[in-house]
Amino acid sequence: MTHNQRIVGLNLLLSISGYIDSRVSSSGWHSYQVASLVKGITSRLNFDARQTQSVYWAALLHDVGKVGVPDKILCKPGPLDSEEWQLMRLHPVIGANIVKNLTQFNQIERVIHFHQERYDGSGYPEGLHGEQIPFGARILAVLDAYEAMTSDRVYRKALRHRKAMDEIVTMSGKDFDPVVIDAFIYTVKASFRAS
Predict the structure, then answer these.
(1) For 96-140, how does the pLDDT look when each residue is reduced to its tens digit (9 = 90+)?
(2) Is 97 exposed, middle or buried (0-12, 13-18, 19+ CB in 10 A)?
(3) Peptide bond preceding 125: is omega within 30 degrees of 0, i.e. cis?
(4) 148-65-81 Cα angle (round to 5)
(5) Cα(37)–Cα(147) distance, rounded to whole angstroms?
(6) Angle, helix 135-149 to helix 161-170, in steps of 10 degrees
(7) In this model, does residue 7 exceed pLDDT 80?
(8) Whether the Cβ atoms of residue 138 and residue 99 lie closer than 8 Å to each other
(9) 119, 137 contact by CB (below 8 A)
């Protein structure tokens, strides 16, 4: 694949991701907002520049697989039924398959594939738990959940920052890695002090 083909592929993926964000979040910037939180948390966790870049790009493209989910499910204002959830749970696999074809993103394929796994093993698509889940995917899970909670969605209104933080903290050790939660809390507090 030539450099120009990679650039075209990247721009296409970013456009698809932006389209999906415009369908699922009121801001239309969900993936960019998730990505904006990456550097602070990866710095706290002593990630090097390459590792940070992988999580950043995974954040930008983590929902690209929702292109394979019908709009009637993606934009449904109420709860999904079991059949609809089966389709929704395919989006990490679809997304990973999409990005793996671009050689510059082969490191983020696993992060995207496993970003819906839960620390206690209750997530999808594989039901991995604890440190079986790639570290970048454990980070992305927290950032994705926080940003989704604090923005309006078709199925519910946004939570206030404090309420979302309380919910994230209660999920430490269940949905989320406690080490990642600690780094996330530190990063958010530092961000609020700086603003």
Answers:
(1) 999 987 766 667 999 999 999 999 999 999 999 999 999 999 999
(2) middle
(3) yes
(4) 65
(5) 9
(6) 140
(7) no
(8) no
(9) no
State residue 61's pLDDT score.
94
CA dist 151 and 16 (Å) reads: 20
pLDDT tens per residue across span 19-40: 888 888 777 788 999 999 999 9
Q: What size, in residues, is the chain?
A: 195
CA distances from 151 to 68, 80, 188 (A): 23, 19, 16
Instruction: Give the count of domains, the chain.
Output: 1
Q: Which domain holds residue 101?
A: 3-194
CATH number, domain at 118?
1.10.3210.10
- pLDDT surpasses 70 at 76: yes
Cβ–Cβ < 8 Å for 64, 35: no
* DSSP assignment of 21-44: HHHH-SSS-HHHHHHHTHHHHHHH
